[in-house]
Design goal:
Radius of gyration: 24 Å
Number of strands: 16
Helix content: 25-40%
Largest sheet: 6 strands, antiparallel
Number of helices: 11
Structural class: alpha+beta
Strand content: 15-25%
Distance between the termini: 41 Å
Length: 439
């Protein structure tokens, strides 16, 4: 029997007694975004006519050239030009071409409030702990969490993940799972609508939230980034195709049909706004939107003929108007859909122009790898010198490269010279590093 299913009867009883589904959407929700241009028809390929013959031949159907979307940097340029016109809006987006793997982003590592978007990690972890098809009670919790944005039901799923009636323990498990997947900027410290508890961390330090500017002043209890959400959705899609990081990480604990089930239930989240409003009717969008007063976002898989990931978050200090964010996100979604599906989306002259260079990837050094450990989730301080000035906090579980310098003792602590995955170097206490064998 699946771990945690001893709570199924309790979950059904309690969920049946309480109909709370989290925050409702504002009363005046626009039901349409900018008009979506119909996808242009691809001209038929030139037909080759065979020499005349006395023997009748069947007429072949004219071949239709398959449309290959242009380089994704064209879309990034169009996104950026549009966003640059929006005064006082701090925008973050990530777009991933699910066929080529090409990715573009703007402020992809900007820390944002987790909102209901971090219910996507909850859904992934729920299916990971299940070893058989979810019973009716759990199916109801999954559906309400995904489609009605239920906060109460999301917390019940956290209890299921924990295998005990403690949503905080489930939140901790979800955070640890995201870090195993390399998504270090995503965490849930305090479950939805709960107050912090002294035995649990009330927040986590991440690479994203240590940056002073720009900032969205994100909710300290749960955070993410568009880059993390985009990568997780890519993993879910790949898992549904029986490949990718989730299948590699979890093997028989998360199967292709379970990832397909996650996509299916997220596609039932229909709000007629945000990403949905930017695609033609009938195009499935498996997404989870979320909002707080100053930040609105949507993270989705657009399951068009050429599938892609689109994650957008908008922030306005103090308050972001729903009418504004809906129109802006819908327009970005419309531009993305046209990029992937409309051969006439760009003039030929633009496609022939030069593109901005691709960002340079941080080289992977040929060095032994250690992991930050035993910090109880608080993270490890990276210092400029042994016992010196603080540079930043390394999250629990983060891999770091061990530089060839010998360990140094200072202040009763053994220090190792390390390099982060993004290239920053400093000194960290050996007691909080899980060293490789022989290290």
């Amino acid at each position: 029997m699946r771990r945690g299913l001893i709570f199924v009867g309790l979950l059904l009883l309690v969920a049946g007694c309480r109909g709370e589904t989290g925050r409702a959407l504002p009363a005046a929700v626009p039901t349409a975004g900018p008009a979506v241009t119909a996808t242009a028809t691809v001209p038929a390929a030139t037909t080759v006519v065979a020499p005349a013959s006395s023997t009748p031949t069947a007429t072949a159907e004219p071949a239709v050239a398959a449309f290959t979307p242009p380089d994704l940097r064209h879309l990034a340029a169009r996104f950026d030009a549009f966003l640059d016109e929006q005064e006082s809006i701090l925008a973050s987006y990530t777009v991933i071409d699910l066929e080529s793997g090409q990715t573009v982003m703007r402020n992809g590592d900007l820390a944002i409030s987790g909102t209901s978007m971090v219910k996507i990690p909850i859904l992934v972890e729920t299916y990971r702990v299940l070893d058989e098809a979810p019973p009716v009670a759990v199916t109801r919790l999954i559906t309400e969490t995904a489609t009605l944005s239920g906060n109460y039901t999301a917390n019940l799923l956290l209890e299921l993940i924990a295998g005990q009636p403690d949503a905080f323990a489930g939140a901790q498990s979800v955070t640890q799972a995201m870090r195993r997947l390399g998504l270090y900027n995503t965490f849930i410290a305090v479950p939805y609508d709960e107050e912090p508890r002294p035995q649990y961390l009330s927040t986590y330090v991440t690479p994203a939230n240590q940056r002073a500017a720009p900032t969205t002043s994100p909710d300290s209890s749960m955070q993410t980034t568009t880059a993390d959400m985009g990568r997780l959705l890519q993993m879910v899609y790949e898992c549904s195709q029986d490949s990718g990081a989730l299948r590699e990480q979890y093997a028989q604990r998360l199967l292709a049909h379970e990832c397909a089930a996650i996509i299916e239930v997220m596609a039932e989240n229909m709000i007629e706004a945000f990403i949905e409003a930017g695609v033609p009717e009938g195009v499935a969008v498996a997404h989870k939107h979320g909002w707080v007063g100053d930040t609105h976002g949507d993270a989705g898989l657009v399951l068009a003929e050429h599938p892609y990931v689109l994650v957008i978050a908008l922030h306005h200090p103090g308050w972001l108007e729903w009418a504004d964010s809906t129109v802006l996100i819908a327009e970005l979604s419309h531009l993305a859909y046209a990029h992937f599906n409309d051969p006439a989306a760009y003039p030929a002259s633009l496609l022939a122009s030069s593109l901005p260079p691709l960002p340079t990837a941080t080289p992977v050094p040929d060095l032994p790898l250690a992991h930050v450990a035993r910090t109880r989730g608080a993270g490890l301080t990276l210092r400029a010198a042994p016992g010196g000035a603080e540079l930043l906090i390394l999250p629990e579980g983060l891999p770091v490269y061990l530089l060839p310098d010998e360990p140094v003792s200072a202040g009763g602590v053994s220090w190792r010279h390390v390099q982060t995955p993004w290239g920053e170097q400093g000194w960290a206490g050996s007691d909080f590093l899980e060293l490789p064998s022989g290290g």
